[in-house]
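User: Hi! I'm working on a homework problem where we have to compare a predicted structure to a textbook description. Could you give me the structure for the chain below?
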Amino acid sequence: MNQENPLIKYFRKPKIYVTLPTGGKFNPELKTTLLDEVGVSAMSAIDEISLRNPEALLNGEAIKSVIESCVPTVGDPMKLCNIDIEALFLAIQYATYGNDFTHEHTCSKCKEIAEYKIDVNDLLNRFPDIDHIDPILFEDINIHVRPPTLENVTRMALIDLEQKKIIQNLQKVDDDTDDMDIANKFYTSFKKIATFNVDMLANAIGRVETPESTVTDTMMISEFLQNVPTTVVQELNKAIEKITKKPEEINKMQFNCEGCGHLDEVYMEINPINFLEAG
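Assistant: Happy to help. Predicted structure tokens:
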């Protein structure tokens, strides 16, 4: 018979409750409080180590692990909308280190270096509410898009890396290599990337409503995307890009130099990488 750990009452507990930008609208499995909030705990030592692993950050495993540890009620983090993930990381910052974090800034006028405090609560309040997205109309069907998930964004980062590798390999090709062989290799690589892009777009579509039925199967939606005019795909990409792009106000910081009084306006991306450095 296992004895209960007498130290269990000292284990981490939620330190802050936050409302997600999407309100969990696209994740019905999400467990929230009566106020539609999720509880967020501080990071453990293992969580911090996970975020220092570049490979785990690139493939999304580190972010997934930390979210599961600090916000266990959200289900599978890879299925969460990426904008919700970004808000949760700020909340984890708050729960771990407190409401303020320090950023070092060099004045653009007098070059004085100083440290400035950034209010996490203020940043959280800047996130927009994403409670409704108009569907895309094609003939007699409605295509409902959703904000990209962490899985989508991670796959896009890997696709981007693949594209850079292709370009690097092209630059390394020597003059003796057969042109047809080069063309075939690059065609295969770019076709693979194009397929990934279609699959990712399919995953960013929540459902397709026809007069007869509602389709949610990702494979069916992917097949649909491969057989519609390219203008439809372009319109869908524009719609998803629009809801993916965060308002500039979220990342806009103002630093007032104590030395010369100059006010600098800086755009600073808050993500899991510089998030850890700020802690």
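For your comparison, note the following. Residues 179-203 form the longest helix (25 residues). The longest strand covers residues 100-106. Good luck with the assignment!
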